[in-house]
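User: Fold this; tokens only.

Assistant: Input:
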Amino acid sequence: MQYIDDAEFQIAIDLDNGARISSITWRDLQFTVPYRGGPLDYGWYAMGPWAGRIRDGIMFDADGEEIQLPTNVMPPHAIHGFGFTSSWQEIGPGRSLLHLPKPYGGATFEQTIEVLDDAVRWSLEYDPGDCTLPAWFGMHPWFARDLDRGGSAEIEFKAAKMLKRDDEGMPTGEFVAPSSGTWDDAFTEIQGVPAVIWEDAARIDVESDAPWWVVYNEDSDGVCIEPQTAPPDAQNLGISGEHYIEALFVFSEA
């Protein structure tokens, strides 16, 4: 475990379970969803070397050879990469490193988490080494729907474009106008700064230059705003992602 105790923040990072933030408190309020029986739906974790689902777990290398990725977490698709189920190596305060397994052998994934005044800066960097497979990644924070006080979490989010999903929940590559109501969707060209608001308690603004975002609010215990370098199933959509992403989670009273 890594611990950060800085002013009004107390953060626990579980290196053996995806180097995820398993607990983050600010002014004595707990903002993470606790463990609920599986690796997908708790804490704040890094997704990589791919974010979201890959249809049937099929990827292609630089020579066009088909590569089968693991689909055991949410069959029949591969989901969220290897990072969130792996043990990471501590390389400094708030810093950790993952040597990725095959078929990404030789590539590494590095995470840095630090406190800056009333904000948490979270960065991820991918080094492909000799690996020729595409990589895109992002952050998957599970914000607790309810805190010890105040109202339930509400998402403040606007974007110009949303990817249409098919019957399996996979993006089709077609853009549509963003819908209202519940989301488990990928967006681009965001407008303003996304935020989670607990009325009369707290607010977290998520500041990032990420070109893609996934928003999920269909869970009774938590909501997710996920900055990503590319959308789910990016390779099959012909979209590539950068190898670095950074987000600033700014905490304030609401």
